[in-house]
Design a protein that fits this description.
Elements: H1 21-27, E1 31-37, H2 40-52, H3 55-68, E2 77-80, H4 85-91, H5 95-107, E3 115-117, H6 129-136, E4 140-142, E5 149-157, H7 161-172, E6 177-185
Parallel strand pairs: 1-6, 2-5, 5-6
Antiparallel strand pairs: 3-4
Helix pairs in contact: 3-5
The structure holds zinc ion (ZN).
């Protein structure tokens, strides 16, 4: 099914997956696509994947999502939202990176690790929308020249603060085509 409404405000638009002008301005994202709403079963599945290292389930979910995700129609570099190093050490993996790898295998689009998280931010859980935004300011930076068209990949879109801050980092570097791709949207 081809959707023709903005993924955030439902205003009608013509290009599937793209955001309306207003939402683009607010998020810094050209488009945003999610597999499903963050329902209870999906929440449990993502929680399970995250904390029980269940790769097979993530692979399965990404495959399902690939059918529903609306991607840009031009090749774009896949950029997983990085974790801060201590968190990565603790968990042992970054779920966004695994989703990006699975996508890379299927789409044959390049993956870029130019985005790094250089500050260990407080967990976003339990913070208000404003607290989430201030918590993330300047937490990302680019370590190499960014590709001109990118897809930011994360597992969940809650208030959007993480994707917005990452998008801001790329916009400041002159990148104009920035899509967001997540499994679930709150
Ligand atoms: Zn909109």
């Amino acid at each position: 099914m081809i959707k023709t409404d903005c993924s955030l405000c439902r205003k009608l638009i013509t290009i599937p997956g793209q955001l309306c002008q207003n939402c683009r301005r607010q998020t810094g994202l050209t488009g945003l696509s999610f597999y499903a709403k963050f329902s209870k079963p999906l929440r449990r599945a993502i929680h399970f994947i995250k904390y029980q290292n269940c790769w097979a389930a993530l692979d399965y979910l990404t495959n399902l999502a690939l059918v529903n995700w609306q991607l840009p129609h031009y090749e774009s570099a896949l950029v997983p939202i990085p974790l801060a190093k201590p968190k990565l050490r603790n968990r042992g993996y970054n779920q966004a990176e695994i989703i990006a790898r699975l996508l890379q295998q299927r789409l044959n689009w390049p993956m870029s690790s130019c985005l790094v998280r250089h500050r260990n931010t407080q967990s976003q859980v339990g913070l208000s929308k404003i607290e989430r935004q201030t918590n993330l300011i300047d937490c990302f930076s680019l370590v190499s020249l960014p590709p001109q068209s990118i897809i930011l990949i994360d597992d969940v879109y809650t208030t959007g603060s993480t994707l917005k801050e990452a998008a801001r980092t790329f916009r400041n570097a002159g990148v104009k085509k920035i899509w967001g791709l997540v499994l679930a949207k709150d």
